[in-house]
Backbone:
């Protein structure tokens, strides 16, 4: 277990931020990692797999590659899974679930392919454990096994995470279509808000919903480990050492830093829905950061800057079903995520009028601020009548999105947007 091939899947577009995070958590040299589409591979130890589960904010899971073989048919998959020493990882008393994904696989039935992998795992245990085999549990398995098929290769993984890593353990209150914590962390990483050794700038989300972005930011500011409130699948595996894990958690707890009494607030969230503000407050309390975030209710078209110092806005505005009509000035209400769409304002029912007014509000009242907006609408800059200085491709589940960066500069200085040293507009 000293040398394992790990694969950490992430949302497409996040690989460039996940790779340095892995190096920072593990202390490994850059040559140990390989960026791939939708994730990062790293060769390291089981101890590092535990650390990555505990600290990673960007990875969706931490998987261990246990087999890589070529195949032509389902029987080849059976032989590949049969050859894996599953007994080194878990016992037949634990339940399993096999999940399968494929890219251009020639097999006609992925369900049958998954069944063959499951049969092989069970048959392996019958041979090595006196006829005893693990049960299958499709809802809450102790062990998740993943098979990924290409046109001619099969990769088998054992999952060390259990539930996906975006489930931090603090978000119990939420509205419809909430932003995943891992994607919120990716927005923060792309903005560079927490980079460097200097003081943090104020951070504000004017459509905070259940508080995902600001709570992630607050935990980063307080150096709270992402997985400190949850359990992981590896705690049930044979290589697991409880004393080593307890030491890791104790070190993480000791590293937490909270602001001094009287220190001004730097992280702010607001939402037009007071119900969502209540949700966000309760989530922040569970996350251990209620004392470092200031939540308020209010419409984004009317909210003034939360502090005298300019800072960073990070926003995942409502779109599609999350735009609700009937807000102030007859526009879509910004942040009403838990309410269904009725009749969006603006051209084509896409909230264009609202975003135009929002941009006007920002230019008038948020001079010096930088706004980062995550949206699947590639035409959003034109709707807002703003020129983005950067666009970062990101995927929100199946939705291809862009994280647009806007500089709020008044007057003639507006022409300088995007001309900051070392910064060029990104490709669509």
Residues:
């Amino acid at each position: 277990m000293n040398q394992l091939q790990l694969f950490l899947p992430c949302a497409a577009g996040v690989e460039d931020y996940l790779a340095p995070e892995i190096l920072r958590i593990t202390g490994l040299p850059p040559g140990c990692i390989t960026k791939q589409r939708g994730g990062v591979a790293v060769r390291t130890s089981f101890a590092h797999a535990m650390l990555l589960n505990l600290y990673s904010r960007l990875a969706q899971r931490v998987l261990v590659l246990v087999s890589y073989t070529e195949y032509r048919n389902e029987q080849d998959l059976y032989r590949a899974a049969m050859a894996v020493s599953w007994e080194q990882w878990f016992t037949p008393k634990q339940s399993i679930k096999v999940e399968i994904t494929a890219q251009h696989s020639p097999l006609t039935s992925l369900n049958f392919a998954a069944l063959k992998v499951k049969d092989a795992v069970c048959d392996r245990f019958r041979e090595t454990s006196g006829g005893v085999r693990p049960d299958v549990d499709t809802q809450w398995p102790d062990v998740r096994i993943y098979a990924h098929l290409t046109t001619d290769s099969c990769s088998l993984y054992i999952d060390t995470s259990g539930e996906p890593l975006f489930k931090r353990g603090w978000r119990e209150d939420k509205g419809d279509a909430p932003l995943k914590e891992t994607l919120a962390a990716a927005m923060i990483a792309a903005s560079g808000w927490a980079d460097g050794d200097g003081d943090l700038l104020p951070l504000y989300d004017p459509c905070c919903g259940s508080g995902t972005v600001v709570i992630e930011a607050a935990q980063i500011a307080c150096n709270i480990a992402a997985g400190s409130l949850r359990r992981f699948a590896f705690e049930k595996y044979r290589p697991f050492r409880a004393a080593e894990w307890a030491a890791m958690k104790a070190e993480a707890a000791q590293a937490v830093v909270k602001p001094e009494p009287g220190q001004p607030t730097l992280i702010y969230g607001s939402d037009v829905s007071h119900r969502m503000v209540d949700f966000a407050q309760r989530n922040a309390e569970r996350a251990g950061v209620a004392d470092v975030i200031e939540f308020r209710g209010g419409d984004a078209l009317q909210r003034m800057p939360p502090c005298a110092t300019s800072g960073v806005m990070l926003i995942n505005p409502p779109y599609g079903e999350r735009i609700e009509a009937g807000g102030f000035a007859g526009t879509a209400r910004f942040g009403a995520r838990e309410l269904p769409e009725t009749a969006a304002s603006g051209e084509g029912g896409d909230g264009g009028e609202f975003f135009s007014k929002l941009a006007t509000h920002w230019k008038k009242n948020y001079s010096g601020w930088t706004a980062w907006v995550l949206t699947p609408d590639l035409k959003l800059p034109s709707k807002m009548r703003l020129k983005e200085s950067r666009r970062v491709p990101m995927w929100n589940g199946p939705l291809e999105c862009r994280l647009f960066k806007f500089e709020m500069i008044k007057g003639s200085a507006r022409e300088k947007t995007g001309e900051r040293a070392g910064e060029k507009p990104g490709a669509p």
In short: The longest helix spans residues 110-128. The chain has a mean pLDDT of 88. The chain has ten helices and 14 strands. The chain has two domains: 4-159, 181-225+242-416.
